[in-house]
Amino acid sequence: MSLLEIRGLKVSYGYVEALHGIDMDIEEGRVTALIGSNGAGKSTTIKAISGMIRHSGSITFSGKELPSSSNKVVKAGIIQIPEGRRVFAGLSVEENLKLGAYSLDGKTIKEDLERQYELFPRLRERSSQDAGTLSGGEQQMLVIARGLMAHPKILMLDEPSLGLAPIVVNEVFRIIESIKGAGTTVLLVEQNANTSLKISDYAYVLENGHIVKEGTGSSLLSDPAIAAAYLGKRE
Fold first, then answer.
1. How far apart are CA 102 and CA 206, in angstroms?
2. Model-level pTM?
């Protein structure tokens, strides 16, 4: 049994159906990628999992139906890092991190902070700095670290490489691999198909609200149709 099972997931915006009954399995301890072009339905998928939008179909987590309330989804252990690097400007880096642990026992926060500073040394250097003054890459690191402060069982990342310089993108994906290595399950939603497939154990390709292909990251990387459509290579 998969950690997260999605069956027949449908989402509509008014009269327009954005997801047409998709099925996905997120296995524990793995990086699963959801790739596709802009508007394919990737962000809609994780918003449905997070309980942010209404949907039909079933989503089960650890064998139980996932609550439809965002607050209950978070308490269950599923944390979404939204697109856009939403830090709390006016608060320091460390204050932002502590907000990620609001639902946990305060006794563990010091240990959790140290864990994040080990994973993100740059955040330690800027722990007292206003989060709003960080660079784009540093803000992305901060929101990921803030999500990890909640001890997620599944960390869902929505376009973590968006708008970042290539050298920073490489660092972000290296961090995602480290998160997996520490035992956290990752659902990665990305337009950067090439790098996503390289670090993913399994991946789904979403087009116009339909899953059109799935397989291991390596098998999709070598698929001529995927290469032509998403990797900038000709068949």
1. 34
2. 0.92
